[in-house]
User: What shape does this take?
Amino acid sequence: KAGVTQTPRYLIKTRGQQVTLSCSPISGHRSVSWYQQTPGQGLQFLFEYFSETQRNKGNFPGRFSGRQFSNSRSEMNVSTLELGDSALYLCASSFLGVSNEKLFFGSGTQLSVL
Amino acid sequence: QQQVKQSPQSLIVQKGGIPIINCAYENTAFDYFPWYQQFPGKGPALLIAIRPDVSEKKEGRFTISFNKSAKQFSLHIMDSQPGDSATYFCAALEETSGSRLTFGEGTQLTVNP
Assistant: This one.
């Protein structure tokens, strides 16, 4: 069974640009959540999607958005990139996204903003 | 607002030692407490998890101890091996918050041969 797949693995952008990251969850998983990981702030929750609907949102500005498709694949978008957006963006999936359910993480997309 | 505090930030032990990582939380609505292990270049992977109605849980060489009244929990790694060298994160989850994990700051563990 394939794990959570994130593409691209690495990305370099400049300030002001926008970026789209992709996540393919484990087959059968309907919940996809996104996290930002930085050395200074650690792992922070961005948002969660379930059956194409955003179910939870973290404390990030509106420049961060996402969506989920009918096949459960998800994308997140960051517009007007800032230097501080440089981070490892992690996607995680689970069947239903409920408490005590095992969450599977991808290896992430490393975004560098210059 | 850091709702889960983790210590120490880094830890070095000898092979066979028992590293202990501690976490404290404030939000009493948290009801699920997982620990994740992360190797460089990889995403976090679930190690073991506990609910607050249990004071201890063991899985292989990994043990969680939970103190509900003190709002603290800890991870013990028995007979640690060099392959256990990784970053460990504690986390907490509210039952009604889906997959919204609140993570601790992380502990970088090094196990020397």
